[in-house]
Amino acid sequence: METTKHKASEVSKWQQYKWMIQDMAGLYIHKFIAWVSIDPEVKKLYREMEEALIQEGDQPKAVQKSTEMKSKIMQNTQERFM
Fold first, then answer.
1. What residue spans define the domains of the chain?
2. Most CB within 10 Å of its CB: which of 14, 21, 33, 34?
């Protein structure tokens, strides 16, 4: 994921709210996925993602955890079909 740094004076309040809403919507989608998953590793990855995004404000780390969740879910799906 490519990130861009912005000065506080360059970002409007509207843009800040937009980014916050996007982050929270993504987090809730991932929360639902972790909730329906039976794999404890997926649940652990969600908790790490939530911590990175909410407590640390580290969006790139949260995206990395999201990608790991996706990979683990895809791996679990392939294992079920074999």
1. 13-81
2. 34
Tokens found for residue 72: 């683990």
- Mention every residue, 6+ apart, whose C-beta is less than 8 A from residue 25: none
What's the whole-number average pLDDT of the chain? 84
Number of H helices, E strands in the chain: 3, 0
Residue found under tokens 């861009």: 4
In degrees, to the nearest 5, what angle opens at C-alpha 74 toward C-alphas 66 and 28? 35
Residue in the block written with tokens 């989608």: 29
Instruction: Tell me how far CA of residue 78 lies from CA of 71, 72, 75, 81, in angstroms.
Output: 11, 10, 5, 5
pLDDT of residue 1: 47
- pTM for the full model? 0.70
Using the 8-state DSSP alphabet, how is residue 51 labeled?
I
